[in-house]
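Review session, final week

We close the course with one last complete record, chosen because it touches almost every idea we covered. It is ABC transporter substrate-binding protein, a protein from Candidatus Marsarchaeota G1 archaeon OSP_B with 263 residues. Go through it on your own first, then we will talk.
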Amino acid sequence: MVGVDYYSYLLLKYLNATSDLPQNVTIVNTYPSPNISGLVALHPSVVIDEIGLIGNYASDLSQAGLTTFYTNADYAQNYTAVESYILTLGKLFDRNKEAQQVVNWMNQKIQSFETSGDTSVAYLLWINPDHTFYTAGSGNFINAIIQLAGGSNVFSNTSGYPVLSPSRLILANPQVIIAQELTNFSYTNYMINTMPGITSVSAYQQNRVYIMSENLPTFLLDEPGPLSVYAIQMIKLMIEGKAPHYVSSEWVESTLNVTLPVF
């Protein structure tokens, strides 16, 4: 490995696992656009890209003479799709055995974490200044995790990641609200507390509102990959009322013992 994108490096840093990388690996900037000249300078045999992220720059990479291989895990609807991409990468690098070990590890974790239940859950991916919010509908990865954690997504009658009005949240009346942190905890809490009609929602009345740190907890839930199996247990503990109202990286690391599967 000669290079790794900044966000992958950041995740390893959260886990104190940067030592798993080669000592001379280069951290490649990908935001707001990929550093193509920097990639070329590394002379990679192949560049692994996520089509959902690199999309518009695919032709630029090709024109620069880079050999690319694209995954599409960001659009995965379940763990089966994620595992399929892992096995495909195993074939690409002639690491079939190791890829299968990662998939086996994931399935063992899923089986140990998953549970059945029908607790109604609303996930607030982002809250806009006017209190409209982005959420996760059916047919996406976050919805699958909520179900495996023993929850029932109150917005499963929508698809993709729709923007909804506060009235939709009030009407859904979820038993649990899980929100992604907006800049910091205080501001996120303020936006939830000032949402029109929030005081009539069961989750608010029963003090079952949880805010996830924008660091490791959000990575686990929002990024389909091997470590996302821990999101099942994280969400399950919120549904069961066993998580703090601010779910921090430190709490997740110590409670879930998040470790990177290396084979």
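Two points worth writing down before the exam:
Residues 6 and 105 are 25 Å apart (CA to CA).
The chain has a mean pLDDT of 95.
Good luck, everyone.
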